[in-house]
Amino acid sequence: MTELTERERAVLALEARGWRTQGAKEQAVREELGISATRYYQLLNALLDREEALKQDPVLVNRLRRIRAARRAER
Fold this sequence. Notes:
The chain has about 80 residues and is mainly α. It has helices at about 5-15, 20-35, 35-45, 50-55, 60-75.
């Protein structure tokens, strides 16, 4: 296993914050990470499959995995 990069840790930290609006989150993604919202969600989705991310923030990663699984089941 490899460790998470600084950017990957920043993605998890940003996702862990509470957001009042979707626009505020997307603006923070652009300003703090310097990437598009699309790229952010691609990185986040890939992180959910990594054990290193689970070790970094198990509550967040497990919650996001459950949400992702529920959305896939709806399709």
